[in-house]
Amino acid sequence: MNPTGLTPMTRIEVVVAGEDLPALRDVFNAAGATGYTSIANVSGVGHHGFHQGRLAFNARDALTLVITVVPDESADTVLAGVQHLLADRPGVMFVSDTYVSRPEYFR
Amino acid sequence: MTGLDRPARARVRIDVEAAGRVVAPLWPVGSFIAVNPLEGLLDVGFEAATAQARHWLGARCFPDPHWLRAAHRAGRITDADLRASVLARQPHLDDHEVTARLGELLDLPSGPAAPGPAESTSAARPDRDLAVTIDALVAAWCAAFTDDGSIAWPMPGRREGLYLAWRQLAPHDPALRHLVGRRARATLRHLPEHPEDAIAEALDQLGVPPESHRDEMRRHLCRLPGWAGYARWSEQWAPPDEPAPRLSLVDLVAVRLVLERIAAATAAAGSPAEARGRGTPPPVNASGEDAVLWLDAFERHYRDELLTRLSRPAPTAARRRPLAQLVCCIDARSEGLRRHLEAAGDHETFGFAGFFGMAIWFRALGDPRPRAQCPVLVTPQVTVEERPLPGHEQTAQRRRARAGTASAARAAVHAAKTGPGGAFALAEATGWLSGPVAAARTLRPRRQARAEHRTDLRTAPTVDATSDGFGFTLDEQVLYAETALVTMGLTGSFAPLVVLCGHRGHTTNNPHAAALDCGACGGNPGGPNARVAAAIFNRAEVRAGLHERGITIPTSTWFLAAEHDTTTDTVVILDRHTVPPQHAGAVAALDAALAEAGDRLATERVRALPGANLGNPARHAATRAHDWAEVQPEWALARNAALIVGPRSMTAGLDLACRTFLHSYDDAVDPDGTALETILTAPMVVAQWINAQYYFSTVDPDVFGAGDKTLHNPVGGIGVLVGGGGDLRAGLPRQSVFDGDQPYHEPMRLLTVVQAPLERIAAVIDRNGILGHLFDGGWVTLAARADPAAPWQLRQGDGTWVPWQPAARTAHHLEVPA
Q1: Is the ipTM above a cut-off of 0.90?
Q2: pLDDT tens across B427-453, in order?
Q3: CATH, range A7-106
Q4: Residue of chain B whose Cα is closest to the Cα of A80
Q5: Model pTM?
Q6: Is B747 helix (H, G, I), strand (E, B) or coil?
Q7: Within 13 Å, how many C-alpha atoms sit on residue A76's CB side?
Q8: pLDDT of residue B61
């Protein structure tokens, strides 16, 4: 389905430790992503058990969820970089189709 | 080779980032932060990380065998310690086999010899001189790129990054022309536009197979670990508004790889290059089991002594309300002040991270830039500004004007010094003035310091949210106040005075001055945080909010800010003008007690300083602080060994020799473990960084240390070189950890001692990966007990607990070969 008047894009969500955020941002920049949303201190359960997100005085070792939306033609760059990053670093990535109303914001 | 596509460039960047983890981020020396030099390898465990450091950096990672044997002869390591260490590692050995193993340990060197500098990379491998030449060239370009304005003609194109700026200038560099020769200069003019492409091209031409790309990149970064560390800081830790140009790992690798590629082509003169990056896999156990056993035995001896002392019955607590409660930083130097203050009168003391829970940007009066006053693990969200109190605006204005004039004068002198020929004219014009000032600083350092001291001015931090964006909301103030009180277990029985005592060092003409300041305040003096916290605790609205949350601070209690100068052991009460008159008597009594405690601590501490004048310790300590030729103003955190988390009753009355970080904790007010989790994931992580910094700066001062202070040459406002060039030096200066030729610091890994229910501790560890790495990876030993009556338990690498049993002391030593 392509909602009327909206433009298809790729939404990429990544959960990484705070110390890997700079590398992730580097990948986004390399792909030409124009922005991202970062949600710090996320908690959850993964295959290593419960991960604490609420650390009062340590943002570096808490988990962060980062969301970016890129044109389909830029998605490969992000996916290649994040897959390479997660090859030996903890974290997960979710990729999905999405639609935006202001495509010029994302190019 | 054509350029890479964007996904391939992204992969190159990730490879470089992964390769760079073998070096630690290097903070600018002005905000020196002690950091574990192997923090990027934390997740592989201590033994594997040290094996990698030995392989890549050519580093020694264990104490010197001769020093350990001397410790054995002195009884600081006993045969029983060694025997227990062997059995802990090889529990299947019988008594005869253990004895034989001890004989081997005493016969053999306790660790592999250092392999020397990191193996030269790729093209330079046949010629170490060539690698050194390339190192010097790249280091010089890094220094020019990162300069903060100390040179008159800045490197053009710095905003584009090191690689692109260098790419424009490299063809014109005479030193490069000499290195690469006339034929190769054309190559310099046609380098790829992207550093990732340059890296890929160079790796391809050097014949490095894809599976070895990261290793090859790592080898290049390990040739210049100081600059690589600074690049890691630039990329991962630098604040968004950092004015200095950002050095990136990708640019650094690109420049060095390109130079080696061109130099290799020149040297090979057309012969096929050997395939690069093959072989030399990191040795699995290069650190050597013997070295691990000796280190473990040394740590075991200290651990047994400490836990034995902590096992004695706690002294009976006084029932009456103390005159004052002093909350000090967990810094090991605070242990001495607390001990002597408690002995000097009816005072109670607590330990808490010296930023007192206030993660702030603090802009002091007249300071153009705010400073991040908090642990580097936190990014402050609130800015607090120091402003003059009503009636002091004119004094403040005069100070600002004076600061502006001094700043302009410094800028003028700097411009004259760096301009062509200006240095000569400056010397002629002002040399007569500099001489007497230098003489005064050398001969009468304390008097000169007093002459330079600023006049008094009454100010206050703007803690309350203001319309211009400074300060906290009321909810934030209440939250931070509650967090601090609960975390340190101070939730009732408040004294008439509660003193929040930050700390700072005091030294002159020392690029590493920040290393003496408060690590919990980002390498800054802790006074501003104490002032902000005290102001918040004294607000009626905050106390009302705390009361609603179950913490009642009586109206008869006043919070004071103070600052402990750890070099002179003087304690200054800050914002004294805000103290209500009814507390004047108590403050005067506290002043006297602090002075007495400071004098006693100075007497104790000065004895350990090289060349100390013991006749008047307090005076001698002050002289060292102001002497611009003094390279050892204080020992700072040397000999730090343990972090103790629990109530003061565990340690009260014990002389712990300023070797322990003390964090107050009361498990009764922390049923869900939130406070314990905060302590273990923040203050303990910072303590481990400090501990590891001292450890590695001692075991290999050449690789992990900053070198001899007398040879330091500050560069670009970001660090020091030893001599006129070369790599940026990380770590602590030699004089911070060595007394002459012998280590003063005793290198041992951090011991953390916690009094809390074991299941609570285990739950906190389970949900925080960083703690699993630290405790189970051999970086930190954890000892715990549920309550004073329970036996100590030691956490094992598999997460289980075993009861602590001290190694049986034996009088008989095996014969040690000379």
Answers
A1: no
A2: 666 666 666 666 666 666 655 555 544
A3: 3.30.70.120
A4: B7
A5: 0.90
A6: coil
A7: 6
A8: 95
